[in-house]
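Journal club prep, notes for RB
We'll compare a predicted complex against what the paper describes. Inputs for the L4NPZUNZ case:
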Amino acid sequence: MVVITNPSTVDQFPIPKLHRPPAAAAACIPIVDLNSPTAAAQLVSACEELGFFKLTNHTISLNLMENLEDEAVKFFSLPLWKKDAAGAGAAPSGYGSRRIGHMGDVGWIEYLLLQINSINPSLSTSLRQETIKTFFISALNEYITAVKKLACELLELIAEGLGLRPRNALSKLLMDEESDLILRLNHYPSRESSSGGVTGFGEHTDPQVISILRSNNTWGLQVLWVPVPPDQSSFFVNVGDSLQVLTNGRFKSVKHRVLTNSLQSRVSMIFFGGPPLKERVAPLPHLMEEGEESLYREFTWCEYKATAYASKLVDNRLELFEKH
Ligand SMILES: C=C1C[C@]23C[C@@]1(O)CC[C@H]2[C@@]12CC[C@H](O)[C@@](C)(C(=O)O1)[C@H]2[C@@H]3C(=O)O
Ligand SMILES: O=C(O)CCC(=O)C(=O)O
Ligand SMILES: [Fe+2]
C-alpha cells in the first residue's frame, strides 16, 4: 500500500516528546456538543479562544464516514500509475504524493484533492478517471452532502451565537452555487517506529472559511503543537483565514500540522468551505463595534486564494492583507 519510497528528503526530526500526557493534551482541546442547548455559545468561545474544537453529537453516522474511508483506503492501495491517472500533481485537483502545493513543500503523505462543484451535483469534473468514479461516487456524494450540510449548520449556529442577522450571513457563502468547496483525502503511510518521526503535513493555516476534519483512530494532528487525540466518530473543526477576516480577528485561524510517527497509517478526510471566487472577504458590518476599523484591506476570495496558493505552507498569508 505504501507508495512513498524516498523519505530522505522529508524533514526528519526526533520523536516529539509530549510535554503533557495524552489525557492532559485532550483537556486543551475544546469540545462542542452539538446537542447542547448552549452549542451556539460553545462554538463562539471555541472559535475565539483556539479556533479549533472537537465536535460531538453531530448527526453524521460512523457508517457514512467509514464507507468513504474504506473507498479511500482502496484507492490508495492501487498501483501508482492508476492513482496518477486521477490527475497527477493535484493541480488544481487530483492525486498527489509527497509534494504539497507548488512551492516546494513535501510531506510523508499521499492525497486526493477534489474540487466540489455545486452546480453539477456534488462532484466536479476533476474526477477525470473512471476508476475513481466507480470507486468513490456514491460514498463521496453521500459524505459531501452530509458534511456540507453540517458546515452550514455550524455557521448558522455561530451566526446565532454572535447575534448576526440574517442567520445565514455566513452559511450563504457555502450555499452559493459558485462556492469554492474542496474535499481532501489524506493518507499518511505507516512507518517503522525506530526510524523517528517525520512531517506528514507541515504547519499551516487553512485559507478558507471553515475546515471539517474526520480521521481514523491514528494520532498525528497537532494544533499549536498540542497533539489532538484522534476520535473516529467525531469531527475536528477549524476556523480558516477567511473566517478570521469576516470576524475582524475575533476568531482565530489556528496553525496546525501532522507529524507521523506511527506503525498505523492515518487516513483523514477534510472538507474546506470557501466562498465564491468573486466574493469580497471583509469584516461583517454587524460585528463591528462603533468606530472599529477593519484590520485588513479589501480583497476577494479569488485574490486571497491566488496569494495563498503562491505561498509556502508555513507562510503567514493573512499578514500580506493586514493594514499596518
Ligand atoms: C503549500 C500549499 C498547499 C496549499 C496551497 C499552498 O500554497 C498554501 C495553502 C495550502 C492549503 C492548506 C489547506 C488545504 O489543505 C489546501 C487544499 C488549501 O486550500 O490550502 C492546501 C493547498 C494545497 O494542498 O494545494
Ligand atoms: O490530514 C490531516 O489530519 C490534516 C491535514 C490538513 O491540515 C490539511 O489538509 O489542510
Ligand atoms: Fe489544514
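Talking point for the session: The radius of gyration is 19 Å.
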